[in-house]
Amino acid sequence: MIRIKAWFANWLWGKLCEPARRRYEQSLATPATAQAGVLQRILSRHAESAYGRKIDLRTTMEYSEFAQALPVVGYEDLLPWIERVKQGERDVLSCGKVLALERSSGSTFAAKFIPFTEDLRAEFQEAVRTWMGDLHRRYPQLAGGRAWWVVSQLPNAGAKTTGGIPIGLPNDDEYLGWWERKFASWLRVANTADLTVAVRELLAAKDLRLISVWNPSYLALLWDKLHSPLSPQQLWPNLTIISGWAAASAAADAAAIQQLFPHATFQPKGLLATEGVVTIPWGSDSAGPLPALNSHFLEFQHCASREIYRVHELQSDTDYEVVLTTSGGLWRYRLHDIVRVIGWEQQTPRLRFMGRADGGCDLRGEKLHPLFVQQTLAKHTSAFAMLAPASAPGVPGYVLCTTDRHLPASTVETALKENPYYAHAVSVGQLLPVRKFLITDEFPSHKYLERCTQLGQRSSTVKATALHRAAGWEKWFQGNYQP
User: Fold this and answer.
1) Of the candidates 144, 237, 239, 375, which lies 20 to 30 Å from 430 by C-alpha distance?
2) Structural domain of 384
């Protein structure tokens, strides 16, 4: 009975996703046309918002007019408008009811509040349906069994703003449409909020075909808790796809999962943020994700020249910072995520997430950038490694939290001094040299995820980082300082 229900749900889900998959397939040859249609759709529905009226947006604007009228903004620029939304005012940044204010951590703010609307949900749905449609078309064997989806729950659910707007959606399912939520409930193996239940039901799920996690370290933690004498292939012989983060600092965890589950294909997830979807998996699992052409309007700011480009104007082997316009009311919003063009699918670029443009540390004028730190650490270790401000009082400095027993702090210190501002701050005694904290936790990436969740982030949008602005990590991880 379970197998019949799973087959029927997979078949219906595939039928529901097919129109989005076809739209996307057609858009790959003409991304400029697809994106122009998205921009016109957003303008036609939301130009009459209070924000749109102030900037004098029009429903029939061409891109050149749109770009000239609207500045690229950050969260701080939208704060007065967000406050109006929090008070319950309608049609502020977009037209229509705000269902919730999704909470996300920021580098400058303790928390950011991102409006979530029905139109924004539809844009997320378009991306999910495109991805799932392609996945089922390439792997028809998925129809033969169930899936295990990690659904992140919102900490402190039930809170509301003074204007009565819910703070956060209860869980990730709310990003899906009604039918997707129904199909997912038929296909899902276990209640992932309860690890005990998940372990028990996963052990019995011989028909498991798909595993979708956010941070792949979570899957390693779960496997450890299973305590099974059998191998993953013996437990789930028909497991076909594992989907998880694999870019930037999550690459090492993804590689470990690929070794643990050699019989299944590991598919890297696209770039997802609380604010919107940037990329989705499509086609070859090793080729890199593609922009969500039919969801939001995407622009890219060249990391060197700071010039703005559209999807079809990008250049190979070049880094860009993502700028989003969505139906949730974010207009030319700087996402602070950096992507690199690594290839092409017809006329559409494949984009790899490289790291964050924000989240820099400047305790004493050292101007450490997360991308610089990530590239520095990657040259010297493939193990978990993260730099963060030390908790000790007195002269500030940084602590290297890592599982690499053989990486000396002095090696990282020398590499960091390639940044002249950092080198000067240490030489004059404004900063202490880097100290090493050797982590003994078996799953440090999961410990990292747990703390980020406690700090208010939804686990589905937590991105691994090589540089964190918050202190206290050496008190959170198990381990000890190394000489």
Assistant:
1) 375
2) 370-482
